[in-house]
C-alpha cells in the first residue's frame, strides 16, 4: 500500500509547522526500547491491519477513526500532532521492512492483547477475513509472543461481539 493512502485515513489534517513541543508531544514521544514511541508503535500496528489486504475499506477507516478518538494513547494529540505521528509511521513502514517487529518490541507487553484485539476487529470490520489479513494476524500473534490459547480467546470474544 502506498503512502498516498494516508490521505484516505486522515484527510484534511496537516502537521503543525511550529517547532515547539507540546505536553502531548513529550508524553507520546517517551522513548521505548527502540526509537518508536508507544503512540507510533500502536498506530503502526493498526495501519498494518488496515493495509494487510492492500485496500482501505471504509469500515476499517471508520473503526480506526473511532479508536483514535477514544484511546487514551492518542487522546492528548491534536489533529496536527496526530497527522505528524501518522506521517512518521507511514515513512517508517516504507523504510523499514521489519516495522511490525520493531513496533511490537516498543510496546509494553500489557498492551499486546488489546492491540491484537483491535487489529482483529479492524480486519473483520469489512465482513471478510482475507488471506493476507490472516497472515498479518499470525505475524502479529508471533511477534507479540501471544500463545495460541490467548489468541483463540481474543478471537472468540471478537467473533461473538461481531455477531450482534
What is the chain-wise order of helices and strands?
A: HHHHHHHHH
Shape: globular
User: Radius of gyration, rounded?
Assistant: 15 Å
Average pLDDT works out at 84
Could you tell me the strand content as a percent range?
Answer: under 5%
Class of secondary structure makeup = mainly alpha
Total beta strands: 0
* Largest beta-sheet characterization: none
Name a few traits of the molecule.
single chain, 164 residues, mainly alpha, TerB-like, 9 helices
Polypeptide structure, described:
This protein is mainly alpha-helical and 164 residues long. It has nine helices and no strands. It has helices at 6-9, 23-28, 38-51, 58-70, 79-95, 99-106, 112-124, 131-143, 148-163. The N and C termini lie far apart (31 Å).
Question: Can you summarize this structure?
Answer:
This protein is an all-alpha fold and 164 residues long.
Please describe the topology of this protein.
Layout: H1 6-9, H2 23-28, H3 38-51, H4 58-70, H5 79-95, H6 99-106, H7 112-124, H8 131-143, H9 148-163
